[in-house]
Amino acid sequence: MNFAIDLTNTERRISTAEFALRMNISEKELYGRIKDGRIREPAKDGRKNYWLNSYVLMCITSTDENGQADMSA
Fold it and tell me: Based on the structure, what is the number of domains in the chain?
């Protein structure tokens, strides 16, 4: 029995690698956007960095007037 589970609306932790992949940018570019203040800093669980899926989805779907994601909230 094959079936797919849609995780887009499931609240879960998103790693740095998955966030960058979903934004279609490199991890280096993701950290650059964090440094610029366009993306908020990740939460930490020990050594692991993560963002909540709802925030990642908001970053993917939101843009400012220049077409750039601005999720500094």
Answer: 1
Q: Write the pLDDT tens digit of every residue in 11-70.
A: 999 999 999 999 999 999 999 999 999 999 999 999 999 999 999 999 999 865 555 655
Q: What is the pLDDT of residue 3?
A: 75
Rounded to two decimals, the pTM is 0.76
Domain presence at residue 73:
no
* Domain interval for residue 48: 13-61
User: What's the order of all strands across the beta sheet hosting 48-52?
Assistant: 13-14, 48-52, 43-45
In this structure, the strands spanning 48-52 and 13-14 are: antiparallel
Does residue 71 lie in a domain region? no
